Amino acid sequence: MFDQITLTLNADPFIMSALREDISSEDVSTNSVMPEGKAGTAQLICKQDGIICGMTIFERVFKLLDKDSRVEMYVRDGDKVTRGQLMADVYGDIRTILCGERTALNYLQRMSGIATYTDQVMQLLEGTGIKLLDTRKTTPNNRIFEKYAVRVGGGNNHRYNLSDGVLLKDNHIGAAGSVKRAIEMAKAYAPFVRKIEVEVEDLDMVKEAVEAGADIIMLDNMTTDQLKEAIAYIDKRAEIEVSGNVTAENIARLKGLKIDYVSSGALTHSAPIMDISLKNLKAV
Question: Is there a catalytic annotation at residue 137?
Answer without folding.
Answer: yes
